[in-house]
Every structure is written in structure tokens, then in C-alpha cells.
Amino acid sequence: MVIDAVEEKKEIINRYRRLLRKAKPILEPGDAKLIKKAFTISLEAHKDMRRKSGEPYIFHPLAVAEICVEEIGLGTTSVISALLHDVVEDTDIELSDIERMFGKKITRIIDGLTKISGVFEYGTSAQAENFRKMLFTLSEDVRVILIKLADRLHNMRTLGSMPRNKQLKVASETIYLYAPLAHRLGLNAIKSELEDLYLRFTEEGVYDEIMGKIDDTRASRNKFIKAFISPIKDELDKLKIEYDIKSRPKSAHSIWNKMRKQNIPFEEIYDLFAVRIILDAPLDQEKSCCWQVYSIVTDYYTPNPDRLRDWISTPKANGYESLHTTVMAKNGQWVEVQIRTRRMDEIAEKGYAAHWKYKDSNSTHESNLEKWLVHVRELLERQDLSALEFVDDFRGNLFNEEIFVFTPKGELKTLPNGATALDFAFEIHTDVGARCIGAKVNQKLVPINHVLKNGDQIEILTSAKQNPTEDWLRFVVSSKAKSKIKDVLKEDKKAVAEEGKEILLRKLKQIKVDPNSQMFEKMRAYFRVNSQFDLNFKVGKGLITVNDLKRFKDYKPASPIKSKPQINDARTIEQEISKAKGRYDDILLIGEDMDVVEYKLAKCCTPIPGDEVFGFVTVNEGIKIHRSNCPNATELLANHGNRVIKAKWTSQHEVAFLTGLKIIGTDRVGLINDVSKIISEELKVNMSSISFRVDSGIFHGEIMLYVNDTRHLDFLIRKLEKVEGVVTVNRFDSRNIDSANQEKVNA
Ligand code: MN
User: Fold this and answer.
1) Which of 27, 238, 687, 747 is a Cys-bridge partner for 31, taking CB atoms 3.0 to 4.6 Å apart?
2) pTM for the full model?
3) Protein residues within 5 Å, CB atom, of ion ligand 1
4) Ligand 1 center from residue 308 Cα (angstroms)
5) How many angstroms is it from 561 CA to the middle of ligand 1?
6) Which stretches of the chain score pLDDT less than 50?
7) What is the rounded CA–CA span in Å between residue 445 and residue 428?
8) Tell me, what's the pLDDT at 126?
9) pLDDT of residue 578
10) What pLDDT is recorded for position 510?
């Protein structure tokens, strides 16, 4: 690539000026000077670096700063931090330098944005550790996350120039953590864009198809909307209030979700777009204005009574306020109409930062976010959680729409969708939760795992004799209840382990074994436990008896255990691969050098040649190959990216691979026969198992069979689709959830 240094310098200055222009409305006296200083330092520090696309590195911090200003609505401190966000991690500049030049506040933010360097212990996750570290800073300053989201958004926008395995890793991490986080902070525009970019880089074909269809239907959609809003407009004009009517199709990602969840084609999605009416209403008349518009809309169109959502009276926990209704248009089509004020609209799009702008006006909604932050802080203070557990709990807190329920005295409580009576009990108080034996929901007696609905009124029943068990973890969805139950269980476990410790020492004395540390180490290996705590616990529980201890005493290893090279991450295994080079004759190439090594195919997604795949280094079973769209892929890539290695099919040998097909059709005599005939006779494919079921006239078949590659499979699917009575033929992802879980990290 030829680089025109003069042109490039011009472009850098252009982009810097653009940033200043956009930041201008928020600048206070003296700010411009500080921003210039940060820019100069960043430019100099990154001067020899380029992004994967070949662009000068400084384009990246400049873009992140611009997103902070324009799309999140942040101020000077954030602009400076964004400009400097990569210098400590990637250049010689240290945190102490930043502190000297810009002070403590900015230093803390940049520290939160800098990855932990060094090696991670096996079984931990670098990604999870870094995520937790970033959130630690959050308890002091929310801006860390907002800048991180801007950073992630720009990286996702420019993901095209990254190598494929990096794309998958970054995209998975984004959908696993950052998009839900953006949602939780109310940054809807950024959340939608992150999700769409995820889809674009993981399911390119699907993404292109959906975008193409949105384009193709634009003209007819616009015509429809024009006719739909025309009578509403006439009425609104009479009211003499300022308003805007917008209509946007749903994001590609949410369309894709709908298609998958309801198993319907694009054409059958009825709520492809929503009509949004945005009003300029004075603060004290917001609610009545919105309902007035609701009244106008429903004068013309009949509303669906089940689809009225009033998030003005009770905003969502992330601050979202809006009035939604779904009405029947004149052509028999349902249309969602969203009614809100300009203030509500800005908060819906920009979220957290926009809240501060309207700080005085809306204390309840702000306190919802504040409550959430308090909970995150609590979670961060728990030192017994590993980073992975933390990320898991934290995510549990990001998802789900919430429901509103009431205490017997009528106090409103917000719980995640799917919450049970037990969740509610823990929401009231830890002791109430731990002693909960059941509840009365709307006066009716229900068990502790009863799932609550919007508007339920709940009275918790307790008993002093009640004690939480492991099972309870399956009865709750809120992370608050989960962590409280874990606490109680841990306390119980501690008591058992304490007792076990005493028993163990006594028993060892009986059988005359000297309790020194070397002996305990051998003992832990013999009983296959990870820690002394687990060993004590097992003894306390009676899972290790005195006879077991005697057997351990008499046990002599046949030969000293050879220490195998410890395989910690993908890099180590790639070195091992090089040593083994050329020994195997197979068709899957693995690692940076695209070598041929031994592997196993993951049972959760049963990849076959032609599938896009990646390798995952497991603890005991070497490399496992997963499909990129495996149900477990997102979690593996998001938490254990360092154990992921590239893998690619090359040639397609005549090797058979096991895969599954799901056939749905109308039941008719002879259908099973026709299907199996095609499979075994005409196509000479081997079936490993076949099962059929007929359910009120609908026929469901599941076949496990051996094919050579995806082309072979597609051919087979097309052939089966032509059988009379067959409606759909689909490959299925996972045979069952259990086998999928076993395939996870430690398999
Ligand atoms: Mn960055």
C-alpha cells in the first residue's frame, strides 16, 4: 500500500476538527485546550501504529471520542479519556504520566479501560477478568462503561478488516455482554447497531437477505404508512401542538430473532415496523398529551386490548418511557404505534447520559438506574465470586423485560420477567427468602417456584424450619436471589467442611498417616478434588470414608506420573501442533499455521465439512471442533477467546459425518416409507437413528444420518422436501440440551 503522508496528515486534522465541531456546544472555557493536549499526546504515542485496515491508529481514538459526544451525549472528560483510551495499553505512556498531565479523574477512567496484562491462570477467563476490572471503575464513574461501549461500537463498525477468528471472538463478546449492557443503560440506538453488526459478521447470508427484503418492500411500506397516518395528522394539526411522525423498520437482528423464535419467514412478520409519534409537550402535561394522542389514534383504528403498554406511568427499569398500542389498519394489518414526548424519545435513544440532562425533572426513573448501579456495586464487592461467576451473575441482571408486582400493602416491586415467588421473597429480605415455604398470589396458595405475572399481589409464607437447598437455584431468575442462596449454601458448606477437617485429621491419626502438606497434595490428586476445602467437605459429607483413606494409604502409583506439558491456551497448543505436524492425514486444518492435527467433533452441533467452524482447546479432550453458529459458540468465544483456534475445512473426502434432520409434514399413509426410501435407497445414505411422532395430524420426524458435507446435505434436504406431504426439512442444531452442556468448557 502506498501511503501519501501529506494527504494522511490532512485527513487526521480534518477528523480532529470534525470532533471539535461536534463537541462545541458542550465545551466550557478552557476545554478546547485540554482536548487539543490529549489529541496531541495520543497522536504522538500512536504515531507508528496502524489499524488492521491500514489506517493510521489515531483514527480510532478520534472516532471513539466522536461517538461519545454525538451518539451518547458525553462531555469533555469523556472526550479526553476516549482520545487517550488506548495509550496506556498499547504505548509507552503510563498511568502516572496521565495523572500528572490530566489529574486523577481521567486517570481512573483510563485505568478502567486498560486491559490487565500478563498471563491468566488456567480455568480463569482473561475476558471475564477484564470485564470485571472495567466494572470496578464503574462504581466510581459510569463513564468508563459508556466510553467502552463507544470503543466497542467503533471496533464493530470496522470489524471487516479483522481476521475471521478475531471477528467471531469480538462479535460474540459483543452480543454476550456489550449489547445487553447498552440495553440496560438505555442506549437503544447503540444496542440495535451492535446487534445488527453481530448478525452481519456471524450470519452474513441471513443479514444480507433481511436487509435486501427491507429494501425491496420500502416503496410499498412507505405508501401504506402515508395512508395510515394521514387522518391522524389532520387531527394532530387541529390540536396545535408540534409533533413529528417517524416510522422505521425493526432492526435486522430483531427480525431475525422473530423469524427464528416463531419459525416464520420474513414475509409473515406482521410488525415489521412501528409508527412513532413524537410530541413537543410541556413537562407537566406530558402524560395527558400522550393519552390525548392515543385517543385520536384509536378513534380511527381499533386497538388490540392485549397490546397496550403504558411505560409512562411505570417506566422500564432502564428508564424507557413510552406509550405503545397496536391497532388494526384498514387493510387488516396490525400496526404498532408508539407515542412519546421529545424528552422521552431522546432518553430512549441515548439513554444514560440523556438522563442526566433531564436530571431534575424525573427523579423516579433516575433512581431505577441508581438502584441497578447499587446492585452492581454489591456484586463487585463480593470477593468470593470468580470473574466468570461474576460475569454470569451480572448478565443475569441485564436481560429480560421486567414485571411489576405488589406487596400486600400495595408497594410496587420490579422483578425480571420469569421471576418466581421465591425471587419476590428474596427481593423483600434475605431472611424472608431463606425461610420461604410458599406464597399467596392474589389470595391463592402457590409453591415457591410459582412464576409471577404483571400486577400480581404477593404475600410470602415463611417457616423457621425452612432451609435453602441447591434446588432453589433453579427456582429463581434474579441475580439477587441467586447470590443470596449461594451465600447461604456456602455457609452450610463451610460448616460441613470444618467438621470434615476435624474428622479427617482424626482418621488419619487412626490409620497412622502423617498429615503433612505433601501428603495432602497426593491425597487431593488421588481423590480428584481441586482444593483442600473440597477434600474436607467430601469427608464431612461422608463421601470419603475411612476405608477410602486406607486404600489411599496402600496405593502405589505404577510409575511416577510423567508431567505432561500444560496446555493453557491456544498458543501453547499451536506449538504442540507444530511438533505433531504431518503425522495425521485428515481434512481439517487448525491453528495460525493451518496445520493438520487431531481433533474431535463437538457433539452439541455436529459439524460437517463445509460448515464454518472453529477449534476449542478443552481440558481433557484436546481440540474440539464447533460450528460457528453452535448454540454454545457465543459463550465459549466470549469467555474463553484465548482457547479458540482457527479451523477450516479444505478438501472434501469421502468421509461420513453424523448430522440430524427434522422433517415436518402432514400425516399420510406411506410417508415414512417414502422418506426412508429416499434416504437409504436412492441416495445411499446411512441412517443412525430415526424417530417419528404424529401429533393431531401433523407428522414430526427426526433422523440422524451420515453425510459427506454440506453440499451433500443440501441435496438431500431438497430431495426430501419434494416428497408429497412434507412441509419443512431442517437440519437441527443440538440433539439435546444436556449433551450441549457437557460440551462446554471443561469437556
Ligand atoms: Mn480501543
Assistant:
1) 27
2) 0.67
3) 86, 151
4) 42
5) 45
6) 361-363, 365, 559-568, 576-586, 652-653, 734-747
7) 18
8) 73
9) 45
10) 86
User: CATH no. for residue 141?
Assistant: 1.10.3210.10
Parallel, antiparallel or unpaired: strands 273-279 and 334-341: parallel
Q: What is the 3-state secondary structure (H, E, C) of 89-140?
A: HHCCCCHHHHHHHHCHHHHHHHHHHCCCCCCCCCCCCHHHHHHHHHHHHHCC
Range of the domain at 93: 5-187
Residue 418 — left, alpha, or beta (φ > 0 → left; ψ -120 to 50 → alpha)? left
**In contact, 74 and 143? CB cutoff 8 Å:** yes
Q: Are residues 520 and 646 part of one domain?
A: no
Give residue 83 CA to ligand 1 midpoint distance, Å: 9
CATH of the domain at 291: 3.30.460.10
Number of domains in the chain: 5
The letter for the amino acid at 291 is W
Asked whether residue 52 falls in the same domain as residue 92, the answer is yes
Are 237 and 279 a contacting pair, CB within 8 Å? no
Domain-located, residue 264: yes
Residue 431 lies in a domain: no
Q: Cα(371)–Cα(45) distance, rounded to whole angstroms?
A: 40
Active site residues: 89-90
Give distance in angstroms: CA of 212 to centre of ligand 1.
32
Residues 78-106 as b/e (b if ≥16 CB within 10 A, e otherwise) read bbbbbbbbbbbeebebeeebbbebbeeeb
The reported pLDDT for the residue numbered 681 is 72
Q: Within this chain, do residues 146 and 22 fall inside the same structural domain, yes or no?
A: yes
User: Are both 663 and 535 inside the same structural domain?
Assistant: no
Contact 678, 720 (CB under 8 A): yes
Residues 182, 53 within the same domain: yes
C-alpha grid cell, residue 275: 409508527
350: CA distance to ligand 1 center in Å? 21
pLDDT at position 735 is 44
Instruction: Look at residue 517 in the predicted model and tell me its pLDDT.
Output: 81
**Looking at 156, 187, 218, which one is the last position of a domain?**
187
598 and 583, same domain (yes or no): yes
Task: Please tell me whether residues 154 and 255 are part of one structural domain.
Answer: no
- 338, 323 Cβ separation under 8 angstroms: yes
Let me know whether 111 and 43 are in one domain.
yes
